[in-house]
Specification:
With about 350 residues, the protein is an alpha/beta fold. It has 3 domains: about 70 residues, no CATH class; about 150 residues, Nitrogenase molybdenum iron protein domain (Rossmann fold), CATH 3.40.50.1980; about 110 residues, Rossmann fold. Strand 1, helix 5 and strand 2 form a beta-alpha-beta unit. Helix 1 packs antiparallel against helix 3 and helix 8 runs antiparallel to helix 9. The radius of gyration is 26 Å and the shape is globular. The site of zinc ion has 4 residues, from loops.
Length: about 350
């Protein structure tokens, strides 16, 4: 798998190199004197010029070197295509396919819940300069319509990655269960849509986008195979999760959702619900309760204690080390599932 750090380092290197070249090319016409004058006037040839011109040249050099850099935002200067993505896993998929040609603005920051997020003024300012906004859809980005209207950017294309894909029902969202990205099989469809949208927005990058997407899809096929192999070794298939985020994963990899702790975002289970979940855990023999890092684990701890099982964590979003990429996130989650459901690592 391609190293995230290595890639970021290369981008940083490349843009600073580009910056240096740009400054050099701006300086050249200013300092280069006709050969005759260079030879006649000694050091730098500047003594042949009146002092006001020397001072003027110094100012031009100063602004060519520094002023330009400070005034121009990075994404314009580096000629990268600025695209926005709603959540960290989608932002990572866009980075994997876009490579060095795109700069990705992540809307819902790592650690935040997409169910309660609002865009910041700075994000709105940057969205006004973006070419594409990649959304998951199915009601996850309840803020998106308002944000897109408010920025009034006629070049902004909104791409809903789940559009037209079959959905599972959800108590959380009337439109259906939005968490399709957590099944790598469905994430592969997202990646193909990201590839096609980037090609449409930036046709010059087509070869790069196709090559990046092909390499990344190969990694996702490997991830899919590894999950299937791991699940085959699980001693239990009974999943008790914080909310219904794992419905597609459970469906696609042959597990079973025994219970969900929080059926409505932001509402903790009632005493009656807690008792019922504890009873279910004991009845089906679910070996663990899976909490989420984006929510307080209080309810999960209470239920696990009463049922006499451990609390583990499944992360639907990631975005920070060691889960900064989608593939790292899913491999980390697979390790948690192995710990909880008794599989061989
Ligand atoms: Zn959710």
């Amino acid at each position: 798998m391609r190293s995230e750090k290595g890639r970021l380092f290369r981008i940083a290197n490349k843009s600073s190199r580009r910056g240096a070249l740009r400054i050099a090319s701006k300086m050249r016409p200013v300092v280069r004197l006709p050969r005759r004058e260079r030879e006649a006037s000694g050091v730098g040839g500047l003594s042949a010029f009146p002092s006001w011109l020397v001072v003027g040249l110094a100012f031009i050099l100063l602004f060519a070197g520094c002023g330009g850099n400070a005034a121009v935002p990075l994404h314009q200067e580096s000629k990268q295509v600025l695209v926005a993505a709603s959540i960290p896993p989608i932002a990572d998929m866009v980075r994997q396919v876009g490579g060095e040609r795109v700069e990705v603005l992540t809307m819902v920051p790592p650690g935040a819940s997409p169910h309660t997020y609002e865009p910041t003024p700075e994000q709105m300012r940057r969205l006004a300069a973006a070419r594409i906004l990649f959304l998951n859809g199915v009601g996850l980005e309840f803020w998106a319509d308002k944000a897109v209207q408010a920025v009034g950017n006629p070049d902004l294309q909104v791409v809903v990655l789940s559009e037209g894909m079959p959905l599972l029902q959800s108590s959380e969202h009337a439109a259906g269960n939005p968490h399709l990205w957590l099944s790598p099989r469905r994430a592969m469809k997202y990646v193909k849509r990201i590839r096609d949208a980037l090609i449409a927005a930036d046709p010059e990058g087509e070869a790069a986008y196709r090559a990046n997407a092909a390499a990344y899809l190969q990694q996702l096929r490997q991830l899919d195979a590894d999950i299937r192999a791991a699940v085959a070794t699980f001693h239990s298939r009974e999943m008790v999760t914080f909310h219904a985020a794992w419905a597609y994963f459970i469906h696609d990899y042959g597990l079973h959702q025994a219970a969900v702790l929080e059926t409505t975002p932001g509402r903790e289970p009632s005493a009656a619900e807690v008792a019922q979940i504890v009873e279910t855990i004991k009845r089906v023999g679910a070996p663990a309760v899976f909490a989420e890092p984006q929510f307080p684990p209080r309810a999960a701890r209470v239920i696990a204690e009463e049922a006499g099982v451990p609390v583990l964590t499944l992360d639907p979003l990631g975005g920070t080390p060691p889960r900064e990429t989608y593939i790292k996130l899913m491999r980390w989650n697979l390790e948690q599932l192995q710990k909880g459901l008794g599989g061989q690592p």
